[in-house]
Structures are given as C-alpha cells and as structure tokens.
Amino acid sequence: MESSSESSFKVMNQDFVKLDKFNGTNYSRWKDKMMFFLTALKIAYVLDRSLPEIPVPKDDDSNEVKVQCKKREEDELLCREHIMNTLSDRLYDMYTTVKSPKEIWNVLEYKYNTMKQGADKFLIMQYFDFRITENSSLMDQIHDLQVIVSKLHDLKVEVSESLQVGAIIAKLPTSWNDYKKTLLQTMKHSL
C-alpha cells in the first residue's frame, strides 16, 4: 500500500499541479486549487471541521487504531506542509508557528472571505459610481464597465442586458445629452 507521502510525491510530479503562491490577493483561486490538490492526495479530509482531534494513544490500543492514528498524524503534517509551501513568504512567516492545518485553513478562510465580502460591496459601488468621461475612448470605457458587470456575474449578481444598456446611456457625459434622448426614445418605442 502506498503511503500519503509517496502519493504526494507522485501527484506533485504531475503536469496538472500548478499551485500559485498565495499572497493574499488570489484567495478564491488558491483555495480551489489547493483543495483539488489535497483531495487528489487523499488528505483533504483533515480540514473537515467536524473531524475530531486525534485521540491520545493508549497502551491497550489495537494495532489497527495505532496505524490509523499514525496515518492521520502523517496526513495532517503533509497537509500543513503543502499549505505552508504555497504561502507567500509574508504569510508563511505569519503562520509558521501554527501546527494544525485545519487551524491555518480556517484562519485563512475567515480572514480572506471577510476581505472578499468587502471587495464585493466595493465592486457593486464601483458599478453604480461608474461614469463615462470625454477624455478617454468610449469603447475602452464601455469595456471597463463590461468587466465590472462580468465580475458581478461571478458574484451571482445578474445585471440584465437592458439594464446594462440603460446604465451605459445614463453614464454618458452631458455633451451626449441629445444622443441620450434619441437612444432613450428608440428604447421606449422598441419596448
């Protein structure tokens, strides 16, 4: 039977394993890739919040229980090292004293999910505050607005096409007022 560390070595040598360093800005991507990697290694289970602590070994434990405890300890160590190996130097230094991979995972998840929620709110504000100016290419600015809409879509915030068109018209500079009126009338007649 193959040990977790042998399995880990085989998986790491596969071409599909490309784990970026987590630097604090790419949490969702890093988390998904890391979870896929740990699952392929069959050690992701150690991050399960409902998994009980490793029991303290007793002299009268059966060999099977001793083997299971040893495997779990090895899997936790391997999981921790894989997580730590993908952290930026700054984050590595911050979590180097934490021995439990579950604790590292939970702290990262709490911290960066909270930050992501703040970023999500900022993105929605960005959409509402977006204005088209005359000192840049109109198509470039519309592209920028479409990027914001695409990011909102990733957050499961749907912005209908008619709302996008209305937003673009409403966000045109005042020098476009005559054109805005024509577009709005055209939209009114097509509804």
TrEMBL record:
<protein>
    <recommendedName>
        <fullName>UBN2_2 domain-containing protein</fullName>
    </recommendedName>
</protein>
<dbReference type="Pfam" id="PF14223">
    <property type="entry name" value="Retrotran_gag_2"/>
</dbReference>
